[in-house]
Amino acid sequence: MSTDALKKRKAKVLRSEGGTPEMKRGRGEGDCQDVRVYNEEVELDGRDPEQDYQQYKQTCESLAKLMSEIQELKADGAKDGCAEVEQKRMQSCIHFMNLKKLNRLAHMRLKRGRDQTHEAKQKVDVLHLQLQNLLYEVMHLQKEISKCLEFKSKHEEIDLVSEAEFYQDAPQEISRPHLTKEDPHQLTLARLDWELEQRKRLAEKYKESLATKEKIQKSIEVKKEHLSSLQPGLNAIMQASLPVQEFLSMPFEQTQKQTEIARHLPPALYVLFVQASAYGQACDKDLSVSISGDVDEAKALSKPPEDSQDDESDSDAEEEQEKTKRRRPTTGGQLDDKRREMLKRHPLSLCLDLKCKDGNILHLYFYYLMNLNIMTVKTKVSTSTDLSTAISAGELLNSDTLVNCLFTNDQGRETPNPANRYQFDKVGIVSFVDYVGELGHPYLWVQSLGGLHFPSDAPEGVRIGSSLSASHMETTIKLLRGRVQSRLALQKQFASLEHSIVPVSSECQHFFPAKVISRLTRWTAITHQDYIDLPFTKHVTDAGLAKETDLYFLGVVERGTARLLAAVVLSPRYPEISPLFSLSLSWKGERSGHTDDNLRAMESEVNVFKSELQGPRPGHQLLTNQIARLCVCLDVYLETDGQDDSVEGPREFPREKMCLRTVRGPNRLKPFKYNHPHGFFSHR
Question: For residue 634, which of 585, 589, 590 has the smallest C-alpha distance?
């Protein structure tokens, strides 16, 4: 029954809307004008939103009322198929259809509102763009107007003659007073024409002056050629007079002045002056010698320091006895005066300038301590180019340590004269090292160069008691020049190392594989005490290989999670004495050469087999080559380490190096030796 009622209701609705689809298809073309097609958009134009809203509320209320009535009927025991329940269900369906229609109309009304809003926004955007274009045109026109108002003609920069002078000097055909006095524009044009005419006349005069100048210049050149032709004749006369100068012993003026001053040098400095000058003239043109100081004060020294020392001590004793009777003695002040007198230098000093091949100059300033009878030296390096100052290279060119240990164990801290110890006890000087910074270093090789020999242990290479000879001078000069070149090379290398760059020269590229993954991440200078405190350097300090005169550095090489510490001992005699490396690896725990045989093998690669890394003579690249070899060894160490099979995923350090055997022997040593040009690693 309910199904039939629904069908009847649907047919009724279709008839009210214009008939069923079959009925519509059955109508002829002539009836098309009478058929009204239902369109909700057309209906939407004639509906009021407020009425739809009220209808929506009424429909919702009716639907709720019907639902409550159906619920009450069912609560009273009515069955689902009863007529009253079916009628109320049909009314509820009609209300649902009405709600759906109102919902569609609401969505269509919302879409239409959005479309209208979008069209209005587009119109506003178009109008805004037109406004901006108009504003831009206005701004452009204003700029053009400003340019026109600010325009200045070139003639305003020209300093024209006054109007009175113009009418007085200019001809009638240019001035035209009948026209220019009434028209300012014509007056300006006329004045410009007169200025142009005057400049043309001045240009003609300028050309005439240039022609006159060329004539005079040619005459001057002729006279210069005549004067220059006299120079060869004068040179020939000077050349012809050389035998006369040699016969009369008449050296040049500068040499004569130096010789006159050298007469007042103390014996030790005079010996050094003569030997250095002779060696420079005969063997080394880059060695120059000069004398500086107060010549008048040197002339005033009438007595030798040795003779006057005892007299002064006796006179000082008598003066002290007299002063004690008159006033309270000041022991501290007297000792200070005696110390200054004891450490007094000769007023004249000697300067040796040793020029290297790269243009750098080593300045050696030699002094003579009269009462101590020893020589001291101070150093200074002048570079041809500004070197980048590296923090770790602070001690390389330090004047106090530059020529330290030039010969073995020659530190220049204490005086080599045994008699000075007794002299120091009289004036309360505990150690001469406290005065080294002011007076200079009394190296043994300095005493040998000055001909001073004392009965003390001589450093290796210095022949005590022998006279100064060309061979000894040559050896010392070569060592000094090599020391400067090695320190300058180290300073450049340290500047690169502090930026995590290990410089390798083209001559040493074949020592290393093409791909090195481990990188130097840190390079710093440390003190001797810091080096001793490191736990993995105990074997070096116990062996006595770490001295206070050495330089100490700490490098850090990293790859992934592995971190290798390298403590380096750099001897002052580098590269003659190679750097000494001590290693500690932080990876899967702390390891060192005491606990890991492979780390000990890595130390051997850079310390024992250093001759393979020497490079071209004189071997200034040894340090950087050792660091580069250390990076290669760390790659081999990490890549050949066995991987735990229980751990899945890629290896932390994939194997990049080609090795014949990864380990060998009971110690499981790794192949650290690189074979060039084959490119593989093998065991020693």
Answer: 585
Contact 460, 395 (CB under 8 A): no
CA distances from 101 to 106, 216, 537 (A): 9, 115, 93
How far apart are the C-alpha atoms of 121 and 188, rounded to whole Å? Answer: 60
- Please write the tens of the pLDDT for every residue from 322-346: 554 454 545 667 778 888 888 899 9
> In degrees rounded to 5, what are phi and psi of residue 27?
-80, 150
* Six token digits for residue 593: 């050469």
Decide: 262 and 440 in contact? Cβ < 8 Å.
Answer: no
- Together in a domain, 626 and 506: yes
Q: Please give the mean pLDDT across all residues of the chain.
A: 81
Which of 429, 453, 484 is where one domain is finished? 484
346 CB contacts (<8 Å, ≥6 apart)? 265, 266, 269, 293, 298, 301, 367, 368, 369, 370
8-state DSSP, 388:
-
The CA R_g of the chain, rounded to the nearest whole Å, is 54
Residue at a domain's end among 79, 111, 143? 111
| Same-domain check for residues 292 and 363 | yes
Specify the 3-state DSSP secondary structure of 648: coil
> Cβ(549)–Cβ(563) under 8 Å?
no
Do residues 369 and 345 touch, judged by C-beta distance below 8 A?
yes
Task: For residue 232, give the 3-state DSSP assignment.
Answer: helix
Q: Determine the pLDDT at residue 651.
A: 74
pLDDT in tens, 129-141: 999 999 999 999 9
Identify whether residues 237 and 261 lie together within a single domain. no
Exposed (0-12), middle (13-18) or buried (19+): which is 502, by Cβ within 10 Å?
A: buried
- Say if residue 618 is preceded by a cis peptide, omega within 30 of 0: yes
Specify which residues 287 forms β-bridges with.
354
Q: Which residues have CB under 8 Å from 224's CB, separation 6+?
A: none
Evaluate whether residue 489 is within a structural domain: no
Count of domains for the chain:
4
Note whether 581 and 659 are same-domain residues: yes
Q: How many CB atoms lie within 10 A of CB 470?
A: 12
DSSP state of 32: G
The answer to whether the beta carbons of residues 585 and 414 sit under 8 Å apart is: no
Distance CA 390, CA 495 (A): 5
Query: Cα torsion at 264, 269, 273, 276 (round to 10°)?
Result: 180
Is residue 601 a part of any domain in this protein? yes
pTM of the model: 0.55
Instruction: Please tell me whether residues 246 and 264 are part of one structural domain.
Output: no
Give me the domain span that covers residue 34: 2-111
- Name 553's bridge partners: 525, 568
- For residues 546-572, average pLDDT: 92
Q: In this structure, what are the phi and psi dihedrals at residue 271, rounded to the nearest 5 degrees?
A: -60, -45
Same domain, 664 and 523: yes
SS3 263: coil
Residues 291 and 404 grouped into a single domain: yes
The pLDDT, as a whole number, for residue 349 is 92
Residue 555, classed as helix, strand or coil, is strand
Residue corresponding to tokens 């100081």: 293
The tokens for 634 are 């760390």
**Whole-number pLDDT of residue 214:** 94
Is the residue at 80 inside a domain?
A: yes
Mean pLDDT of 490-513: 87
* Amino acid letter, residue 221: E
Query: Same domain for 285 and 230?
Result: no
Both structure tokens of 551: 């330089």
Burial 426-458 (b: 16+ CB within 10 A, else e): ebebeebeebbeebbbbbbbbbbbbbbbbeeeb
* Other beta carbons less than 10 A from residue 256's beta carbon: 11
Identify the residue whose tokens are 């490079």: 615
Is the separation of the CB atoms in 482 and 573 below 8 Å? Answer: no
Decide if 327 is inside a domain. Answer: no
Q: What angle do CA 377, 383, 385 make, to 5 degrees?
A: 170
